[in-house]
């Protein structure tokens, strides 16, 4: 049983003088309604917290010490022939002590392998799991320092590349898993959507969901101010705290595809959820509904936030050298960060970017996420150029050519688009020449 496996692993690690909470007891019995029942008890570690929380609250010196000690601990595990097959930051506890004297404890040991040695492949996978669990907390120099500290356990010369490949596989699996959670049962979402098929956020009650759908139908019937878009492929209505988007089929072929494969319309809903998981500001997804030949998606309403084209027009008209340039630098840094993290928005027009004022400057939020793509590494040059051209075409002409070049150079410094900056700039210009360019009215 899991209880016995954890007991045996804890006793073995205790005998090898590796830090585990003291094992106290385990028990198991055969039950009538299950193959086995079991329990495992270990001594409670007073004041312990998760490794990630301890790292977040540590000063730079203590942070470096914690990372170095965790690398030594993982190396000692592998040197002792112990492969913890669920090694991540949540399964290592930290009992804070005097500076430099924090105690680390290994937990959740039931998934393990023991032997004379841990092979190179198993070690690479274990290290990748550990680093992936801290991927959003570690800066590149810290990651490199951790690998260097672990390298004393006999890492081969091409160790870093092997770990990076294993980490990329974990990231793909993690993103697929997180992207699907909004369509199933989880702590945040449920499939209970009344007469519809689909899923909704648990924070959105069934009564409120039904009221929003009814309000959407009423707004469309009355053609009132709540209707934000009445296009060939979608109908959008706003209701204060939520937006309802109905996907419509413009022809019979599309209608048949919708009936046979309605899940493809959930792309924007899934992408919005995954953007939230990746901590990219976006409209929070509330529900995805399918029924009676209709497909509805509900999102948080961000219409109170200023659109990017409106903010650009105001900033460059009033203070081009001050507010305008600050906005352009912030936008360049945000877009470069998106591309560096492998996030690509296939319809990056200014109307699909909302701007909120945060404590550190402008904060940009993505909407209309149907055409997002997520890559393991940085977004490819071709797609980055397309995004640059889309933004350039959709921003009003109040931003002069000189200021647009400043924006491009700021973006290129943060995320170099290629070895030849001038050649890449010419490619952006060629793409832009084929687009409808905004003069005053926004491109919807």
Shape estimate? globular
Number of helices: 14
Please provide the count of β strands.
19
Helix content: 40-55%
Q: Radius of gyration over alpha carbons?
A: 26 Å
Main sheet makeup: 7 strands, antiparallel
Mean pLDDT: 86
User: Segments where pLDDT lies below 50 for 5+ residues?
Assistant: none
Biggest sheet strand order reads 8-9-13-14-12-11-10
Distance between the termini: 60 Å
Helix/sheet category: alpha+beta
Strand content: 15-25%
Please provide a written account of the structure.
The chain is an alpha+beta fold and 444 residues long. Helices cover 44% and strands 19% of the residues. It has 14 helices and 19 strands. The strands form 6 sheets. A 7-stranded antiparallel beta sheet has the order 8-9-13-14-12-11-10, sandwiched between helices. A hairpin with a 2-residue loop joins β13 and β14. The radius of gyration is 26 Å and the shape is globular. 32% of the residues are buried.
């Amino acid at each position: 049983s899991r209880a016995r496996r954890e007991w045996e692993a804890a006793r073995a690690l205790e005998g090898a003088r590796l830090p585990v909470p003291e094992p106290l007891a385990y028990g198991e019995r055969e039950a009538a309604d299950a193959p086995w029942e079991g329990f495992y008890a270990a001594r409670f570690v007073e004041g312990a917290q998760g490794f990630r929380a301890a790292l977040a609250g540590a000063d730079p010196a203590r942070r470096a010490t914690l990372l170095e000690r965790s690398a030594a601990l993982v190396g000692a595990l592998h040197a002792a022939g112990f492969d913890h097959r669920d090694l991540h930051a949540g399964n290592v506890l930290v009992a804070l002590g005097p500076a430099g004297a924090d105690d680390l404890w290994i937990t959740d040991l039931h998934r393990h392998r023991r032997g004379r040695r841990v092979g190179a492949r198993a070690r690479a996978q274990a290290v990748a799991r550990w680093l992936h669990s801290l991927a959003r907390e570690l800066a590149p120099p810290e990651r490199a320092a951790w690998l260097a500290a672990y390298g004393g356990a006999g890492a081969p010369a091409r160790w870093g590349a092997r770990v990076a490949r294993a980490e990329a596989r974990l990231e793909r699996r993690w993103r697929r898993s997180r992207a699907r959670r909004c369509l199933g049962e989880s702590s945040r979402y449920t499939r209970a959507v009344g007469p519809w098929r689909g899923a909704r956020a648990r924070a959105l009650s069934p009564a409120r969901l039904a009221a929003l759908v009814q309000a959407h139908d009423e707004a469309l019937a009355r053609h009132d101010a709540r209707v934000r878009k009445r296009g060939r492929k979608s109908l959008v209505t706003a209701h204060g705290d939520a937006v309802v988007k109905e996907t419509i089929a413009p022809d019979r072929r599309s209608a048949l595809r919708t009936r046979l494969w309605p899940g493809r319309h959930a792309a924007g809903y899934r992408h919005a959820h995954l953007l939230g998981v990746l901590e990219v500001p976006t409209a929070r997804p509330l529900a995805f509904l399918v029924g009676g030949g209709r497909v509805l998606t509900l999102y948080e309403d961000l219409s109170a936030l200023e659109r990017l084209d409106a903010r650009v027009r105001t900033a460059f008209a009033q203070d081009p050298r001050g507010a305008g340039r600050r906005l352009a630098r912030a936008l360049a840094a945000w877009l470069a960060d998106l591309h560096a993290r492998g996030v690509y928005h296939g319809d990056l027009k200014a109307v699909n970017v909302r701007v909120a004022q945060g404590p550190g400057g402008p904060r940009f939020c993505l909407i209309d996420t149907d055409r997002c793509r997520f890559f393991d590494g940085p977004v490819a040059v071709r797609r980055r150029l397309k995004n640059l051209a889309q933004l350039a075409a959709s921003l009003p002409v109040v931003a002069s050519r000189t200021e647009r070049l400043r924006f491009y150079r700021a973006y290129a410094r943060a995320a170099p688009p290629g070895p030849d900056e001038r050649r890449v700039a010419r490619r952006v210009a060629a793409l832009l020449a084929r687009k409808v360019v905004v003069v005053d009215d926004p491109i919807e």
